[in-house]
Amino acid sequence: MGRLKIIHTADFHLGVWPVGLPLSKRRFRLKDFEDQLHRIKNYALETGCDFLVIAGDIFHTAKPSSLLLDLFARFVYSLASRGISVIAVAGTHDKPKAEDTPSYLKALSDAGTPLFYFAEEPGCIYLKGRISGRVVKFFMIPYVQASAIDWEESRLKIMGLVKNLIAKEEYRYDYSIAVAHLTVDEAYIKDIPAIVLREISVPVSIFSNLDYVCLGHIHRHQSPSKNAVYPGSIERVNFDEEDDVKGFVVVEEEGGGLGWMFRELPCRPMKSIPKQDYAYISDEVDISELLTSLLEASPGIEDAIVRLKLRIKSSRNIAFSSIEEVMNRFKVFHWILDVERVREEGLKTIRHTRSSSIEDLFREYVSNLLTGTLDSALTEDVVSEGLKLLEADRSED
User: Fold this and answer.
1) Measuring CA to CA, how many Å separate 146 from each of 198, 200, 235, 256?
2) CB atoms within 10 A of CB 313
3) Do residues 389 and 373 lie in contact, with contact meaning Cβ atoms separated by under 8 Å?
């Protein structure tokens, strides 16, 4: 028998696109994600893994396209056909808007896909590793919808659910592992502790008696405790992640317990230009010359997704064709224009983006509307549910 080895991943977000990405480029962006799945699969097969874990948010919407479903189904089959079990829980984006409506992933599981174990509801499963022969008790903890506006009530609800689940003892096992799509107090979001942001979170200490905790939901790789790890997303999803390293975690038996290491994946760059603040475009400045100098000073710009941050007087027109020409010259994959319009001295600047989908406009509107009213987790829930309604309405059309 070999040693127990597990691949821990999370937050694939298959089907997420940057704002305004043309249809002609979506297949190239999708290939970025497909290549990551291919690299993860190859590592699992080459190194002899027992299990591959996905801690939520496999898809970016609850109703993924048939193309995305096929991509993920082939990924599962490529592992299961070689004896590697795939264990996954539903994330924020995987759950349909109606509580009694099963997700597409549950349908895949219910269809009897061999060695694919998916949980929409909390529960436990016991699985034996094909290579190691080790029996692992997996505590499946999918994303739990906050049912109340009250932060403390929602927090206690999730804590109670986790504690009750972990307390269950039924069969003998070698190792206990939680697979959870949630936020822990000790995690950092945009360099700020989650507990400070009033995220609906739980203390990581409730998992202290387990051998390892496969966390998902936060896209930056981090380890809130020695046995609890967020692998982060497998690709950069937005510009908050432009400096993040992406990859997956390898969990392996060592010294009578479980240790882990992070393996980095190559990733398409995201670049904000300029990095800090906004570049001011006065009436005298030639935008092509300024943009050329900004891009020349930014290494690794070829094939990147770029956010160009400009501050412009409200009376000045934006030469989109000139910007496009410069971006093409530097072989930028896709660009987004983030503009601060300055009306006059003393007035607040107005921000715009060059191209916004209805989803992005909705997200921006709700986020601005609820700022200071709800905590960020509940605001994200409102946005998520609204996006599901938009997606459902589009599907029915």
Assistant:
1) 13, 8, 27, 38
2) 13
3) no
Measured in whole angstroms, how far is the alpha carbon of residue 378 from the centre of its chain? Answer: 17
> What's the token pair of residue 6?
């597990």
Separation between Cα atoms, residue 51 and residue 115, nearest integer Å: 9
The predicted structure's pLDDT at residue 387: 59
**240-282 pLDDT, tens per residue?**
999 999 999 999 999 889 999 999 999 999 999 999 889 988 8
CATH 3.20.20.140: does it fit domain 5-264?
Answer: no
Whole-model pTM: value is 0.85
319 backbone dihedrals φ, ψ, rounded to 5°: -85, 80
Following CA atoms 361, 366, 367, 372 in sequence, which dihedral angle do they give, to the nearest 10 degrees? 160
The two structure tokens encoding residue 149: 């506006």
The alpha carbon dihedral of 324, 288, 237, 43 has a sign of positive
Written as six digits, the tokens of 19 are: 């704002």
Site of tokens 């605001």: 379
Rounded Cα distance between 310 and 351, Å, is: 10
- How far is Cα 112 from Cα 91, in angstroms, rounded to an integer? 21
* Cα Rg of the chain (Å, integer): 22
- What are the structural domain ranges in the chain? 5-264, 270-353, 358-396
pLDDT 10s digits, 279-315:
988 877 888 999 999 999 999 999 999 999 998 887 7
